[in-house]
Queue: 4 jobs
Job 1
Amino acid sequence: MTYTRPPANTPSVTAGVASLSAPERAAGSRVHYLAGGTTIMYRIAKGFLDPNEIDLVDLADQPHMREVSSDGAGLDIGAMVTLADLLCVVHEDARYRLLRTALEHVASPQIRTRATIGGHIASSLPFSHILPVLLVFDSVLSVKRGSESRQIAVAEATKTPYRSGLASDELIESVHVPAAAVESAFYWVDGDRSGMVRPKLVLTVARLAGGKVRVSAGGSTLARRVTSLEEFLPRKAQSVNGIVSLSEDEVDSALTDESWLTAHQRLLIRRLVPTFLSIGES
């Protein structure tokens, strides 16, 4: 393992990483950006990271990555913004009440004070409380590699548990969360509210203006959009002049193609979705 801590306001952290000389980088090593440091030891202990094969780049001195801005288009969050600071930003903004609720469920206040939004996404945690909400809003990452930048959907960057879908030396610089017109929303966690028990299901349902419905689920499995329900529910609404009645069997039938869901997740979803659609926001 090597360790590098670029100085404050380095114009391009990734360009500096790319220029490390051969003696500074072990053969076959992978760059690992250190943010809050709350998941790296867990990932090493579980074998997802080999400490002998990573070049650790500490982002502690990059204040430009700790900025948050909000406008009519949405929320732009620097990758080094802690979950605690982000919770303060969105606490009074009704547009992001789903994100606020998800943040409140993450671990403990101590963890939220250290953990960053960029590190949380890059860790691709199956039990994430936040990823389902980011997926529902079609959130997008701005990433950089050397002097090149690109945008990638959060869904594309989190396809494999515990392993980022980015190139080894790509850096998440910021996260964009669009401001969707949410008419009602539902967020449910199969676990205690303290967030200290890893949930088997994190379910997010949002009913948007125009009749669209977005659904995502995670927990035992890495968070994904439940596209079959997103396609089925608006059709159901049209057939009965609004989503007012839905049976568990109908939901279960719509989930037939979602083979990635566990039996437990599927059972809970078939019970919860009709309840939400009949009572509104929860």
Note: The CA atoms of residues 68 and 77 lie 5 Å apart.
Job 2
Amino acid sequence: MLVAVRSLAVVIIMVFSLNPLFAGDIPLSALSDLNNFAKQMVEKRSLSAGYPVNQNTELKEFYQWYINSGLAELAMNNVGNPRKPSPYQLSTHKYENEVVDFFAPLYGFNKNESWGIVTFSGTDGNNHGVYFGAKYLLAKTRMKPVVYVS
């Protein structure tokens, strides 16, 4: 829980730092705490092992582009069926479809007859996989599937 709270705080500080209107609203104690947290994370980077997270990333250019493009200042969404027009004006369906169309043939599917979604995390992807798998099995067998989780 502490990591989630600190991660949220880091995101909030990043948002504040991108928007000069909010920059003065950050309490110095919070900024000091977050700077210490950032220092600890950077120091521990080389010791990180376990959950598969690649620590050898070069994302400075991407994040600079992300800030300069203005995308860092808005919330996009891929809500709804990506194969249908979205009522949300800041929809990312175009790129979601490109990802699905790229991967469909790699798994033996015809991209013109496939459908899929792009999720934002492993947990979200697993939840959607269980949901769609259960729906599929129910439709095929007329028996409610049982999911075992440990």
Note: The chain has a mean pLDDT of 80.
Job 3
Amino acid sequence: MHRKFRIAPRAACALVAGSMLCAGGVAGAGPGSQSGAVPSVAPCINALRVSACERWITYGRGPARSRVYSTYGIDAYNPGLKRALILVHGANLMGGYFFRHGMAAAILAGALDNTMVVSTYFLDPYVGKRRPAQPEWLRQPNEVVWPEGHTSWRAGGTSLTDPAVSSFDYVDAIVRRLADKKNFPNLSRIVIAGFSAGGQYVNRYEMANKVDGTVPGISISYVVGDPSSLAWPAAVRPLPVGDASPNTPDQSYKESVGKNGTQPHTEFSYGPFDHAKAPQYDDWPYGLENLNGYVAGMSAGQLRKNLVERSVTYLEGQVDTLPISGFDSSPNAEAQGPQRRARGEAYVMYVDRYMGGKQKLVIVPGCSHNSRCVLTADNVLPLLFPPPPGPMTYPTGGFGLE
């Protein structure tokens, strides 16, 4: 059972670089405004105190709720917006950091004025307990707490405090709000992007969500950045040969910075996996068996269909080959390849070669497992901010290599 949602408005203003920046719309401006001009709405871009850009989603009739950070009022009339970027953060309370990444990327792309940047915040049960946190990241009254573990928030797991709500319902609600033509009549594109644990989330959300194709006038695309595990659409796995050979971290790094280091690897073979090594290797969220959480009741066939038909691009940092920063070294994940880059490359190759998919793979030059480096790279900006109708150019430079 999925609940209906509403957004609780919160006016947010911040003094940045000598200017008062407000998110929440212009007083008196709305669909019935008689001026005929597009209202001028200043974005909330307080990089030093992102809580100034905080808003709340209330589930059903409440009181359960979740926070987001956004550059503009998420329920305020704004005809100037043409697209939206929803960012799903990595592990360890990174919602605010990813909001900063999104602001930086929007500035670099020249897209801040016509793009709503929204960052999620998946509060886990360890915040302020075994995981230290600043006061602004602690749980607030009635805030939903999301699960860690097997079917975590990364995979559509249900809330620990409100089991009727799953982590995929959270982004469903954001999408529906942004698709409201009464507030955003000119918004036509939504990009949902994640990195690391957020990349895991977007890989699974892309194939599972029930809003894509149901919101008129909205095109949705997905960007999956450097996940350390994915939901495999078949029981086979990459064989430990060719580009999936279990090299040492030092060997993998040297290969990634070689002559063809920015070209996707393609030498992958696939075959049965030894079930004895990891009996649950093909269970959700690593595969499509024993579906649960948001995907309970869905068929593996429907998930495969969505995976192939929806617009998704995978990002891999050129040198994201080391087992660092929360790398998933579980037997279920190890079945997918030796390191993040190889796992992503093998996955995209399989979907395109054997399932008829048209997924794109982009190697981001010079980047390791660094979200700021990847999300602000020149060859990533057009994916996060696809051009709306009309001409648009993007700045080009050194891909972060200067």
Note: The radius of gyration is 21 Å.
Job 4
Amino acid sequence: MAFALPVTLDSLLEGSSLHRSQRGCFSQFIQKYSAVFEQEIDDLKQNGVVINAEDPVEYFAILMHALHSGVTIWLASPHWKEHEWAQLKTEGDGLVDVYPLRLGGSTRGDSKCIITVFPLEERTDYIYVPTGGTTGKVRFVRHTVENFIIGARALLNHLSVSKLNNLCCLPLFHVSGLMQVFRALESGGQIYFLNKWKSLSEIESVIVVSEKFAISLVPSQLNEMIEDDVQVSFLQKLDFVFIGGSHLSGKLANRARELNLPLAPCYGMSETAAMVTLLKPSLFLEGNSSYGRVMEHAAIKIKDESCSETIISAKSMFLGYHSDPIRPNRSFHTGDSGFVDGSGDFNFYGRLDDRVDSGSEKFYLSDIEYVMDSMRGLIAYKLLVVDDARWGQIVHAKVQLATFFSEKDLLFQLKDSLARHKIPKEIMVVDSLTLDRPMKKTL
């Protein structure tokens, strides 16, 4: 590999960074996929592997196999539908198609998929992380192992922690879930996967008082957990509760302080290999409402007072998107509005565009519009992004339906065409609707 992992390659397949209670299951998955990586290694070296397993331990096992083999890795969601997979095949000058092997998912059709990429010949071990693009399409952010290790080291140094154990309830196809793996690998800590984050109270035996433990949550998860005394008691025992992915409301933050939860609000994104700022729990509990200081591997600049766009440069910066040429060592214009206060802490305002941050997912209204514009029974619709205490933001849809087309029909088509996090959480059927813009396809 172009950058050495902080562990031996053989230890990847032994699962030494995984909690002992899950190593038996891990070993079964390692054995299951060993033959695939042995028999298909030449094809995998050329085209890479797409991982879309639903079981997090299975996802982790395939990831360890891929890191061990030094092949290009494409991280995907097991919840993607045809709409998302179809977006990976595009047209463009200088672009080529690759046919990575898809492992871990119960998908329809061939076990291979088509992804159009900008050809890069100097290495074969890129890691591609999915994110929403400005066009509303699925895009893959191109990273290397080095980027993730740099990000992991920066966090450990920021917290003055040498070993960090991670309780993971976020998917590994999200950069916030993936980084927990590299923090464990880098620090010699362990990772414990939670199939259902609501079962946190059942794994208190995992916690060792003399060691540091962290969990990463999005505000929607935290909002639900604070309603359960058992879950609150569990979170109080942890050293760090990293919170990010969408806006942390003042109401939720104040409630967390009342409960003495060790929240560490952070700011970052797929393009920066997760967090570039972090507020330490002690400062959060004292009433600091910012997202903390910029970490050692990054720098933040605010474009100007009228725009307040946040511009990031970082040693862990991504190397372009999968269909773009490589553009290293550049600043990244985030589209986020924010400022750095007199104490040097970063404060986040919100988005400068129409991207939706819902739970741990990020997507654009154009994704939903693309599907709804093609529905024959939908006369008109409006999509609104609404702030929500649980999810951060949700999509509200007002719709006017033809007589032969019911709300049940609408939901069926949405569920068949879109990943579930993109489906409007509120739908209002109205008799008539005035459109702000014409539908691309009408009855």
Note: The chain has 13 helices and 23 strands.
